[in-house]
Predict the 3D structure of the following.
Amino acid sequence: MSVCDSIEYVEVGRGDIPVVLLHGLFGSPANWRETMRDLGGQHRLLAPQFPIDHRAGRRHTDFRSLGQLTDFVEEFFDQMGLDNAVLCGNSLGGQVAVDFCLRNPDRVDRLVITGSAGLFERSLSGGERPRVCREKIRSMTTEIFYDAKHATEELIDDVYRMLSDRKYVRFLLRVAKATRDRNMKDELWQVKLPTLIIWGKNDVITPPSVAEEFREGIPNAKLVYIDKCGHAPPIEQPK
């Protein structure tokens, strides 16, 4: 992990047009590890860490809107000297990527979204404060994937640790509310650039009907499905 003016990121490879990869709410740049390894021989790939992870020293008191994460991506582009890039996002990262394109259409060459928030996303906790119970967390985590093997004990332990921190849970609920409040349906027509929508055919968090809605809303979009794949294709089906 590298650091540029306090922004942490992972960088792999070289290429004329960089590719910026945005992770989801419980994710990290590590979610893109396989993608970055496989494409690093042909492209420059950069994966920043959103400032929403659970760690000592993080301030989780000032979050008000999704736009703050878009501000963060703008700052990352500026700090890395990116005039133009391919922008790719999964889940929350997809919603931020779309918002960035709406604000900065001239700074994005192409857009890729997968399992994106912004239209509909089913809450794993049913809209209530998540229960800090290991079996409940195991059940919630398993729903992210088609194959339960990806809900590893390490991942369950990480989520358990996060949800045991009451202040952090309150922060997560604010982030979740911000994503729900920022519905993009009536703005998608403004995304004019070539867009690839990649979706897990077995996604139960943002089901395939959401992918179809993105495809209908974005004028220059192509939709492809990945079989035997849930809400996190970069983890479950990176190839």
